[in-house]
């Protein structure tokens, strides 16, 4: 039994000596790629969260302006501190979104990967038209 064990041990030792550096290199490469993907995922989540914060600030501003205009008949907002606070929140949220987009660009994210990138109007219009097999009128 000892002979079999020694043969297996020698075989594995020889195999590791030949292939060990390759395996270590593959493990290192895999770990680096996983870390890169984790960083991209975290940044995408940060971008999503910053976009939600920006949308919330716009929503609050819209509600405040609508309320003041419809119920209080107020049309001058230059001295309204609440409006200014909301506008400052929007500016900060826009800066945060841009900072995260810049970080994503540094790690190699393309604009197509950006969940808040707006579609071009022609893309939206083309996407809304269903494909049909029916001949068009006049054909």
Written description of the protein model:
Helix content is 74%, strand content 0%. It has one domain (2-107). It has three helices and no strands. It is mostly helical and 139 residues long.
Summarize the structure.
The chain has 139 residues and is mainly α.
Q: Can you give keywords for this protein?
A:
3 helices; single chain; rod-shaped; mainly alpha; 139 residues
Q: In the residues, how many domains can be counted?
A: 1
What profile does the largest beta sheet have?
none
Ranges where pLDDT stays below 50 over 5 or more residues in a row are none
Q: Approximately how much helix is present in the residues? A: over 70%
Radius of gyration: 29 Å
How many strand segments?
A: 0
The topology string of helices and strands comes to HHH
Mean pLDDT: 79
Tell me the strand percentage band.
Answer: under 5%
Shape: rod-shaped
The total count of helices amounts to: 3
Amino-to-carboxy terminus distance: 85 Å
Structural class: mainly alpha
Give the SSE layout.
Blueprint lengths: L1 H69 L10 H26 L14 H8 L11
Helix pairs in contact: 1-2
